[in-house]
Amino acid sequence: MNARKLVYLFFSTLLVGSVCGTIIAVSLDTETYFSRGFLNFLFGTIWMFGICAAISLIAQMGYFAYLTVHRLALGLFRSVRLWNGVQVVLVLFVLFDLIYLRYIAFASDEETLWGYMITPVLLLIYSLAIAYWKRKETNRQTFIPALFFMFVVTVIEWVPALTVETVNETKWLWIYLAPLLAANTWQLLLLHRLTGTPQNKETAAKH
Q: Is 0.85 surpassed by the pTM of this model?
Protein backbone atom coordinates (compact mmCIF):
# COMPACT_ATOMS: atom_id res chain seq x y z
CA MET A 1 0.00 0.00 0.00
CA ASN A 2 1.62 3.23 -1.16
CA ALA A 3 0.62 6.87 -0.76
CA ARG A 4 -1.17 7.01 -4.11
CA LYS A 5 -3.36 4.06 -3.20
CA LEU A 6 -4.14 5.53 0.22
CA VAL A 7 -5.18 8.81 -1.38
CA TYR A 8 -7.39 6.94 -3.85
CA LEU A 9 -8.97 4.91 -1.03
CA PHE A 10 -9.65 8.06 0.98
CA PHE A 11 -11.20 10.20 -1.75
CA SER A 12 -13.08 7.40 -3.50
CA THR A 13 -14.64 6.29 -0.20
CA LEU A 14 -15.52 9.89 0.61
CA LEU A 15 -17.17 10.35 -2.78
CA VAL A 16 -19.07 7.05 -2.74
CA GLY A 17 -20.40 7.64 0.76
CA SER A 18 -21.38 11.24 0.03
CA VAL A 19 -23.12 10.53 -3.28
CA CYS A 20 -24.98 7.43 -2.10
CA GLY A 21 -26.02 9.10 1.13
CA THR A 22 -27.29 12.19 -0.69
CA ILE A 23 -29.29 10.11 -3.18
CA ILE A 24 -30.96 8.15 -0.36
CA ALA A 25 -31.65 11.32 1.62
CA VAL A 26 -33.29 13.08 -1.34
CA SER A 27 -35.27 9.95 -2.24
CA LEU A 28 -36.65 9.60 1.29
CA ASP A 29 -37.59 13.26 1.65
CA THR A 30 -38.63 14.42 -1.82
CA GLU A 31 -41.18 16.94 -0.55
CA THR A 32 -38.53 18.95 1.28
CA TYR A 33 -36.19 19.08 -1.71
CA PHE A 34 -38.63 19.50 -4.62
CA SER A 35 -41.50 21.57 -3.20
CA ARG A 36 -39.83 25.00 -3.08
CA GLY A 37 -38.05 25.49 -6.37
CA PHE A 38 -34.68 24.79 -7.91
CA LEU A 39 -32.55 26.84 -5.49
CA ASN A 40 -34.04 25.05 -2.52
CA PHE A 41 -33.20 21.72 -4.19
CA LEU A 42 -29.66 22.87 -5.06
CA PHE A 43 -28.69 24.24 -1.66
CA GLY A 44 -30.49 21.44 0.17
CA THR A 45 -28.60 18.85 -1.85
CA ILE A 46 -25.26 20.59 -1.29
CA TRP A 47 -25.97 20.74 2.44
CA MET A 48 -26.87 17.06 2.57
CA PHE A 49 -23.78 16.18 0.49
CA GLY A 50 -21.65 17.90 3.13
CA ILE A 51 -23.40 16.02 5.95
CA CYS A 52 -22.89 12.69 4.18
CA ALA A 53 -19.23 13.56 3.53
CA ALA A 54 -18.73 14.08 7.27
CA ILE A 55 -20.42 10.76 8.00
CA SER A 56 -18.19 9.08 5.40
CA LEU A 57 -15.13 10.40 7.22
CA ILE A 58 -16.41 8.74 10.39
CA ALA A 59 -16.74 5.49 8.44
CA GLN A 60 -13.13 5.72 7.31
CA MET A 61 -11.88 6.35 10.83
CA GLY A 62 -13.91 3.37 11.99
CA TYR A 63 -12.40 1.11 9.34
CA PHE A 64 -8.80 1.91 10.15
CA ALA A 65 -9.58 1.67 13.87
CA TYR A 66 -10.97 -1.82 13.29
CA LEU A 67 -7.92 -2.88 11.26
CA THR A 68 -5.77 -1.84 14.22
CA VAL A 69 -7.97 -3.60 16.78
CA HIS A 70 -8.08 -6.71 14.58
CA ARG A 71 -4.30 -6.97 14.50
CA LEU A 72 -4.03 -6.39 18.25
CA ALA A 73 -6.71 -9.00 18.96
CA LEU A 74 -4.95 -11.62 16.83
CA GLY A 75 -1.83 -11.06 18.89
CA LEU A 76 -3.75 -11.13 22.16
CA PHE A 77 -5.83 -14.25 21.53
CA ARG A 78 -3.08 -16.03 19.56
CA SER A 79 -5.79 -17.89 17.68
CA VAL A 80 -7.83 -16.82 14.65
CA ARG A 81 -10.59 -19.24 15.61
CA LEU A 82 -10.89 -17.84 19.14
CA TRP A 83 -10.94 -14.24 17.92
CA ASN A 84 -13.56 -15.13 15.31
CA GLY A 85 -15.66 -16.72 18.04
CA VAL A 86 -15.46 -13.54 20.09
CA GLN A 87 -16.52 -11.50 17.06
CA VAL A 88 -19.56 -13.73 16.44
CA VAL A 89 -20.64 -13.34 20.07
CA LEU A 90 -20.27 -9.57 19.78
CA VAL A 91 -22.34 -9.54 16.58
CA LEU A 92 -25.19 -11.34 18.38
CA PHE A 93 -24.84 -9.10 21.44
CA VAL A 94 -24.99 -5.92 19.35
CA LEU A 95 -27.98 -7.25 17.40
CA PHE A 96 -29.86 -7.85 20.66
CA ASP A 97 -28.92 -4.44 22.05
CA LEU A 98 -29.80 -2.66 18.82
CA ILE A 99 -33.29 -4.11 18.99
CA TYR A 100 -34.06 -4.18 22.68
CA LEU A 101 -32.35 -1.03 23.97
CA ARG A 102 -33.88 1.13 21.25
CA TYR A 103 -37.26 -0.37 22.07
CA ILE A 104 -36.83 0.41 25.77
CA ALA A 105 -35.59 3.94 25.07
CA PHE A 106 -37.99 5.10 22.37
CA ALA A 107 -41.04 2.83 22.06
CA SER A 108 -44.46 4.31 22.74
CA ASP A 109 -47.32 2.39 24.27
CA GLU A 110 -48.69 1.53 20.82
CA GLU A 111 -45.39 0.18 19.44
CA THR A 112 -44.22 -3.41 19.73
CA LEU A 113 -40.77 -4.99 19.80
CA TRP A 114 -41.31 -6.40 16.29
CA GLY A 115 -41.25 -2.93 14.77
CA TYR A 116 -37.77 -2.35 16.16
CA MET A 117 -36.45 -5.58 14.65
CA ILE A 118 -36.85 -4.65 10.99
CA THR A 119 -33.91 -2.30 10.51
CA PRO A 120 -31.39 -4.33 12.58
CA VAL A 121 -32.31 -7.57 10.82
CA LEU A 122 -32.03 -5.92 7.39
CA LEU A 123 -28.64 -4.54 8.39
CA LEU A 124 -27.51 -8.01 9.50
CA ILE A 125 -28.68 -9.58 6.22
CA TYR A 126 -26.84 -6.91 4.23
CA SER A 127 -23.70 -7.44 6.34
CA LEU A 128 -23.86 -11.19 5.74
CA ALA A 129 -24.14 -10.61 1.99
CA ILE A 130 -21.15 -8.26 1.89
CA ALA A 131 -19.11 -10.61 4.09
CA TYR A 132 -19.87 -13.46 1.71
CA TRP A 133 -18.83 -11.28 -1.24
CA LYS A 134 -15.58 -10.45 0.55
CA ARG A 135 -15.00 -14.14 1.20
CA LYS A 136 -15.58 -15.03 -2.45
CA GLU A 137 -13.05 -12.44 -3.59
CA THR A 138 -10.38 -13.28 -1.01
CA ASN A 139 -10.57 -16.35 1.26
CA ARG A 140 -12.88 -17.91 3.81
CA GLN A 141 -10.93 -16.51 6.77
CA THR A 142 -12.20 -13.01 5.93
CA PHE A 143 -15.90 -13.81 6.35
CA ILE A 144 -16.21 -13.30 10.12
CA PRO A 145 -14.02 -10.15 10.27
CA ALA A 146 -15.96 -8.67 7.35
CA LEU A 147 -19.29 -9.49 9.02
CA PHE A 148 -18.08 -7.99 12.30
CA PHE A 149 -16.92 -4.82 10.60
CA MET A 150 -20.02 -4.36 8.48
CA PHE A 151 -22.40 -4.94 11.38
CA VAL A 152 -20.76 -4.08 14.71
CA VAL A 153 -18.49 -1.26 13.57
CA THR A 154 -21.25 0.27 11.44
CA VAL A 155 -23.60 0.21 14.43
CA ILE A 156 -20.94 1.89 16.60
CA GLU A 157 -20.55 4.60 13.97
CA TRP A 158 -24.35 4.87 13.83
CA VAL A 159 -24.72 5.40 17.60
CA PRO A 160 -24.95 9.23 17.46
CA ALA A 161 -28.12 8.92 15.37
CA LEU A 162 -29.51 6.04 17.42
CA THR A 163 -29.22 7.91 20.71
CA VAL A 164 -30.86 11.16 19.59
CA GLU A 165 -34.61 11.04 20.04
CA THR A 166 -35.27 13.75 17.44
CA VAL A 167 -33.88 11.54 14.66
CA ASN A 168 -35.33 8.28 15.92
CA GLU A 169 -37.52 7.87 12.86
CA THR A 170 -37.05 5.35 10.08
CA LYS A 171 -36.38 8.06 7.51
CA TRP A 172 -33.64 9.81 9.47
CA LEU A 173 -32.09 6.59 10.68
CA TRP A 174 -31.63 5.49 7.06
CA ILE A 175 -30.33 8.92 6.05
CA TYR A 176 -27.60 8.57 8.66
CA LEU A 177 -27.01 4.90 7.89
CA ALA A 178 -26.81 5.12 4.08
CA PRO A 179 -23.42 6.91 3.79
CA LEU A 180 -21.98 4.64 6.49
CA LEU A 181 -23.04 1.51 4.64
CA ALA A 182 -21.90 2.81 1.26
CA ALA A 183 -18.50 3.93 2.57
CA ASN A 184 -17.91 0.80 4.64
CA THR A 185 -18.89 -1.51 1.79
CA TRP A 186 -16.69 0.32 -0.68
CA GLN A 187 -13.55 0.38 1.46
CA LEU A 188 -14.01 -3.22 2.63
CA LEU A 189 -14.26 -4.52 -0.94
CA LEU A 190 -11.61 -2.16 -2.32
CA LEU A 191 -8.77 -2.68 0.14
CA HIS A 192 -7.79 -6.18 -0.95
CA ARG A 193 -7.71 -5.00 -4.57
CA LEU A 194 -5.33 -2.18 -3.66
CA THR A 195 -3.09 -4.33 -1.48
CA GLY A 196 -3.06 -7.28 -3.86
CA THR A 197 -4.39 -9.80 -1.34
CA PRO A 198 -4.31 -13.28 -2.90
CA GLN A 199 -7.65 -14.54 -4.13
CA ASN A 200 -9.11 -17.87 -3.16
CA LYS A 201 -8.78 -20.74 -5.59
CA GLU A 202 -12.39 -20.58 -6.79
CA THR A 203 -12.18 -16.89 -7.64
CA ALA A 204 -8.76 -17.17 -9.20
CA ALA A 205 -9.95 -19.99 -11.43
CA LYS A 206 -12.66 -17.78 -12.87
CA HIS A 207 -10.08 -15.26 -13.96
A: yes
Q: Are 61 and 22 in contact (CB under 8 A)?
A: no
Report the alpha-carbon angle 120-72-152, nearest 5: 5
Angle at 14 between CA 185 and CA 51, to 5 degrees: 105
Which among 26, 16, 15 is positioned nearest to 174, based on CA atoms?
A: 26
Decide: helix, strand or coil at residue 90: helix
Q: What are the mean pLDDT values of the chain's consecutive 10-residue runs (207 residues total)?
A: 89 96 91 86 94 95 95 90 95 93 80 86 96 94 96 94 66 89 96 76 40
**By the 8 A CB rule, do 203 and 137 touch?**
yes
Question: What dihedral angle (degrees, nearest 10) is formed by the CA atoms of 31, 36, 38, 39?
Answer: -120
CB atoms within 10 A of CB 32: 14
